[in-house]
Write a structure and sequence with these properties.
heterodimer; A: mainly alpha; Ferritin; 8 helices; elongated; B: mainly alpha; 2 helices; 58% helix
């Protein structure tokens, strides 16, 4: 069960209007490496995870990603709230405006709609955690690309820098989660075992003393 | 709340919380309704008391309620989606 808190994880206070920048930043809401995909990825993966601590990490990071989606939307909202018709036409925002006016819809910077195919739930915690680590790196790169585009907007940069750092922290925690899952594996069957599906490690080379099925 | 076991207290929290969820929606569109305001206040007090008891005797229900000794116990199962086994 979730409860909404009327606050952001990190404050967003942007005075300028910049539709062009907003169109780039919207990728971190609905794009391939955005916060919506991250939240859905972790919160969907957690159900079948047998390692309780890892299920908790996926819950906690997934929850934080929901909050990050809110922060990204706050940036987009503030950058576009005072747009004039003239700015809409000049900045190239007109194509987005036709379908969404100044509402915020999850899409990539190139206009591609949010798509669940942008993440996977494989049901194997090793596979899923590798994907999660890669996802955090891809999001970090995206924030770095955005920071280059936002170099003249210090208020935006402050938030993007905060979000970028969280990608690094999450990458670290997922790496540790992977280690926790791997520590529980049978050393003889390290590569041939899905700890969330196989009941016990199959004996590749059965010999006396092997207590697995 | 006295004499409730963990399951009973959780069930009580579920019931009171759902009532709060529902009265919240009602108040969102009827902000001056005195009966609903009174109901909210009463339920809020019940939930606060029950939550305090639950955290004290059975552990945290959210990440801001953890009272750890020397080992972090927040991300330990069972998780709510696992049902009762």
């Amino acid at each position: 069960m979730w409860v909404y808190e009327k606050r952001l994880q990190f404050p967003v206070n942007i005075k300028e209007t910049n539709a062009k920048l907003a169109q780039a930043i919207i990728s971190q809401y609905g794009g391939p490496d955005g916060e919506s995909g991250a939240a859905m990825r972790y919160l969907s993966q957690r159900y079948s995870v047998k390692n309780s601590r890892v299920a908790g990490i996926l819950t906690d990071i997934g929850t934080e990603e929901l909050g990050h989606g809110e922060m990204v939307c706050a940036i987009i909202y503030q950058l576009t709230r005072n747009l004039s018709m003239e700015e809409i036409e000049k900045s190239g925002f007109d194509k987005y405006y036709v379908d969404h006016t100044l509402g915020i819809w999850p899409q990539a910077a190139g206009g591609v709609p949010f798509n669940a195919c942008e993440f996977q739930v494989k049901g194997d915690p090793i596979t899923d955690l590798y994907e999660d680590m890669a996802a955090e790196q891809k999001a970090r790169t995206t924030y770095e690309n955005l920071l280059r585009l936002a170099k003249d907007s210090p208020d935006v940069c402050e938030v993007l820098k905060f979000l970028r750092t969280r990608e690094i922290v999450h990458f670290q925690r997922f790496g540790e989660s992977l280690r926790m899952v791997q520590d529980d594996l049978d050393s003889k069957n390290f590569y041939a075992f899905n700890p969330d599906f196989d009941r016990s490690a199959p004996c590749v080379d059965p010999k006396p003393g092997c207590n697995k099925d | 709340m006295n004499n409730m076991n963990q399951k009973q207290l959780r069930n009580y929290i579920d019931v009171v919380s759902f009532a709060l969820d529902d009265v919240t929606l009602f108040l969102d569109t009827h902000p001056d309704n005195q009966d609903a305001l009174q109901m909210y206040a009463g339920l809020k007090e019940k939930r606060t008391q029950a939550m305090n008891d639950y955290v004290r005797f059975f552990g945290p229900l959210n990440r801001y309620q953890v009272n750890s000794g020397n080992k972090w116990a927040w991300n330990m199962g069972p998780w709510p989606w696992q049902g009762e086994v």
